[in-house]
Structure prediction request, 103 residues.
Amino acid sequence: MKITVYRQACCSQDDQLGPLEAEYNIGADTTFSSLIQDVVKSNFLQFSSSHNRITGEIDGKEMVVVFCQHITNNRQPEFKISPSTSAIDLLNDKKLSFYFRHV
Prediction:
C-alpha cells in the first residue's frame, strides 16, 4: 500500500524548497514503528535549532514525537501508541502529518 506523509516546514526557506510530502510503501506486516524508522532514515523530516522535535498526528491525535538526531543526541522517537500497531490498520485512508507543536 502506498501512503503519503505530510510535514510542516521548519523555516521559510524549507517552505519554498520542500518537499513537504513524501510517499512510502507499507506492507501488511509493517508496524507503525518501522514506518517511522523509514521516514526518519529518508531524511524527509527537517529540523532547525529552534524546531528540534516534530509531532506525528493522525486525525489530530498525537501518535509519535520525533527528535532531531543531531541536536538531541540521537534521542529515539516517543510513541504515544503501541509502536507495534499495524501501520495499515492505523492509517486506513487517513493521513499522517507532522507538525511543530513544541516551539
User: Anything to note?
Assistant: The chain has one domain: 2-99.
